[in-house]
Amino acid sequence: MLSNAAQTLTRPRPVHRILVFPRHESTARHFYQNRQLELYASKEAQRLTLRQLVFYGRHMNEERLIKSANYVRTELPVRIAHRLRDLQALPYVVVTQEGVARVYELYWSAFEKFRRYPPITSLSENEKFCEFVGGLLNEHATVIPNLSLGLSLSSPYLAPEQLDSVMRRMLISRISRRVLAEHHIALTENFMGQREKQLIGEPHVGIIYTGLKVKKSIARCVELLRQRPTWVEDFQGEEIHVRHWPEVIVDGQLDTQFPYIKEHLEYIVFELLKNSMRATLIAHQGDSQLPPIRVTIAAGENDVGIRISDQGGGLFASEPQIKEPADLFSFSHLRNATRMEHSRIGALRSASISEEGVRATVDEQVHRWNHVRPHEMRISKTGIEIHPRIGIGLPMSNIFATYFGGSLELVSLDGWGATCPKPDGPKTDNCAGTDAYLRLLKLGTNLEGIEV
Ligand code: COI
């Protein structure tokens, strides 16, 4: 049964009208609830920079911690209200798609809970508040697969630009809310001396590592990727047995460090390396040697650049006859045909009802590989259990990269590869490579994306 809030969303309504009252007797309540929503949605989000988050958290005392709690308490409902309004403005055919009403309901419930949460005035109240926020963070773990499922299914009914801009706002805003919530919880744990929960190792303020070592994060991602099951899926969905993983060579300015959220950097690097490894294995099946993947770190004055180069067949590898590569960041099937594929929709459907949802840290992803539930598996023709590929890694990486003003670009290099013939030699299908360019701003002075 959908709640009243979700029913509001799923009832037919005239274009440009937002208030629809599902039952006569609940009209007054809905009117009141929507008034509240209007009130919050009319406020502007108080966007922050990474530097502000570090500076504020660096010298913590009781008063500052309580102020931080109240900022989260009052800021999150504003950000959620903006996204609820976005969902309400979608055409009816979109909001009836599987997954969308579930997200709406989760957001509505979180909005109401935050709105009603009383001001925090003491450390013990703050601890309770952190428990409350931690509970919501868990409850919202399935938002991404639900949203991706719903919007992928809506693809035939929405223009690609509209679909991608709604999805982008939903995802940026979600990252922003989780950053604020997780940062405050980490500040509290540090302040309260809950050592077992503290981030260990490198210096940090809340969830931000003040001198994040890029080479170390890359090495960690490589190590975690090598712990994966010993096969990958090819473009036809069949498994390729992995005898050895491609070598990853890291060069450039190896001692680069900068203030950043480690989970965000590692999510992106992990995803890019995962794709490069898979592409290399597919393009070089049966070859006695795999060409290495090269990761180059560059520390510019204002930014940190990471280039990941492979010789795995390039961006056209799965469809060599196509001349325009799919937009891998897009959720529209017109820009990326895989969005409506049966296996992808099935994988999203499983993830959207699993308790774990989709986790944002690489450790959680590895954990999921090792503990994926039987009903989420697909059996290949040769009897191997295949993990679901839900196809949100690259769009999410793009969102993580741009959240504080960075960028992510993928470039296909035709004719670049270990097995490429000489320019005048015969053409081969996999004679190409891909370069991924990640750029993250170093000074932390950019505000969070406008869409929060
Ligand atoms: C989300 O994960 O979508 C959130 O909005 C989290 C927030 C309620 C703490």
Automatic annotation (TrEMBL):
InterPro entries attached to this UniProt entry: AK/P_DHK_N_sf (IPR036784), BCDHK/PDK_N (IPR018955), BCKD/PDK (IPR039028), HATPase_C_sf (IPR036890)
Compartment list: Mitochondrion matrix
Enzyme Commission number, as recorded: 2.7.11.-
Single GO BP term: regulation of glucose metabolic process
Gene3D superfamilies assigned: Alpha-ketoacid/pyruvate dehydrogenase kinase, N-terminal domain (1.20.140.20), Histidine kinase-like ATPase, C-terminal domain (3.30.565.10)
SUPFAM superfamilies for this protein: alpha-ketoacid dehydrogenase kinase, N-terminal domain, ATPase domain of HSP90 chaperone/DNA topoisomerase II/histidine kinase
Major location (coarse): mitochondrion
Stored Pfam families: BCDHK_Adom3
Keyword Kinase: yes
Keywords: ATP-binding, Kinase, Mitochondrion, Nucleotide-binding, Transferase
Domain Branched-chain alpha-ketoacid dehydrogenase kinase/Pyruvate dehydrogenase kinase N-terminal: 47-201
Enzyme class, UniProt record, top EC level: transferase
One term under GO cellular component: mitochondrial matrix
Family named by the database record: Belongs to the PDK/BCKDK protein kinase family.
PANTHER family, sorted: [PYRUVATE DEHYDROGENASE (ACETYL-TRANSFERRING)] KINASE 2, MITOCHONDRIAL, PYRUVATE DEHYDROGENASE KINASE
Protein name: Protein-serine/threonine kinase
Organism name: Leucocoprinus leucothites
